[in-house]
Request: fold
Amino acid sequence: MVLESARERKIEMVVAAIKEETFPEIDDCGYPVHWLGLGQLGKLIRVFQQAGVSKAIMAGQVRHVQIFGSSLPDLTMIKLIAGLKHKSTDALIGAVARVLEESGIELLDSTEFLKPHMAPEGTLTKRGLNPHEQADLEFGRPVAHKIALMDIGQTIVVRDRAVVAVEAMEGTDATIQRAGALAGGKDLTIIKVSKPKQDMRFDVPVIGPSTIRNMIDAGATALVLDAGRTLLVDRRQLVEMADARGLAVVALPPIE
Reply:
């Protein structure tokens, strides 16, 4: 989606593809693609500098749990990690952003090429929240906001005004799946928020058809998002899937 938008705007791109995360189809994008490991921050900087890159944008997901994986960090990444007081998402990616900027590479707002794909305020599906889901929202959204403020996760699952599951490193889809297993697979409300003072350069909330599939499997009936701060992947398919099952998807103004 980012590359298509860049092509429309006639902006030349260079792709640094993370081996542990990126789909191999990226090789067919029509731009130069350089494959590197997640821990190869020094190589990333060299690739960009040799290509004359002065601005970069993060596209897609790097799972937080990968920091405990088998990827071997290079010297640049080792120094970065050693200097961190903690390894939260903001701390890790914020440090990467600083190292890039020190190397002459500015990290842009990750939605720079995706503005039309951000969730607009309002009800995105045919139906809105019913009274049961509204009660779960009113109970759960302040809780989700506090968890996001602590940089733990951005999604919680609520049923009957009780928190069933909280996202941490596992991501939204796994959180929804776990909630379905815990709560008997029915009447769940998913609440996904942005962080207070969200840094739009990274870790912007994303949903797509896979989110709806997991909701259906888990017995969730409603999904509430932050308008303007949530990226909708394949919005048309997402909404059609939700409408076919009578699910509600609603975007509300972010809590600051």
Summary: The chain has a mean pLDDT of 91. Helices lie at 2-8, 41-50, 75-82, 89-102, 131-149, 172-182, 209-218, 235-244. Residues 118-252 form a domain with the Cytidine Deaminase; domain 2 fold (CATH 3.40.140.80).
